[in-house]
Design goal:
By secondary structure, the protein is of the alpha/beta class. It has a domain at 28-115: 3-Layer(aba) Sandwich (Rossmann fold), CATH 3.40.50. 44% of the residues lie in helices and 15% in strands. The chain has a four-stranded parallel β-sheet with strand order 2-1-3-4, with helices on one face. Strand 1 (29-34), helix 2 and strand 2 form a beta-alpha-beta unit. Helix 3 packs across helix 4. The longest helix is centred in the N-terminal third of the chain and has 23 residues, at 2-24. It is globular, with a radius of gyration of 21 Å.
Length: 131
């Protein structure tokens, strides 16, 4: 009789495990990194990115979460802020304004993709190794 109860317990646990795992899973994080102060137009870039993600059907808070870090104009703070995003589990780091932000993110992670926009040549800026 104990063996039957044990097997039934294992079956119930096995059936419930996917639901428990799903309930405990945390959606991936998009980390935003900027050198400029938020009031200097950076929040508009974050809003545009969130809008683009929602147009693809992704829902913030359900499918992904966001964290924003701003150096407030001080490039010396970028390495620490990018490290913080990576330590908090950023699945991707989006740099919003400067090459310095992209370089700071690149210096702290090779695992998370870094998204950046620049008018400079990314090869010469040493942001990428090849196109």
């Amino acid at each position: 009789m104990r063996r039957r109860a044990f097997i039934e317990g294992i079956a119930v646990l096995t059936a419930a495990l996917p639901f428990v795992a799903r309930a405990q899973s945390v959606p991936p994080m998009v980390g935003y990194l900027a050198q400029a102060k938020p009031e200097e137009g950076i929040t508009a870039l974050v809003a545009a990115n969130r809008n683009g993600l929602s147009e693809t059907g992704l829902v913030e808070g359900k499918d992904y979460i966001s964290e924003f870090r701003s150096a407030g104009g001080d490039a010396n703070l970028l390495p620490g802020l990018s490290s913080e995003l990576v330590q908090h589990g950023a699945a991707v780091v989006m740099t919003l304004d400067t090459l310095a932000a992209a370089r700071a993110a690149k210096a702290v992670t090779t695992a998370a993709p870094i998204v950046f926009a620049t008018g400079a040549d990314p090869l010469r800026a040493r942001l990428v190794e090849s196109l």
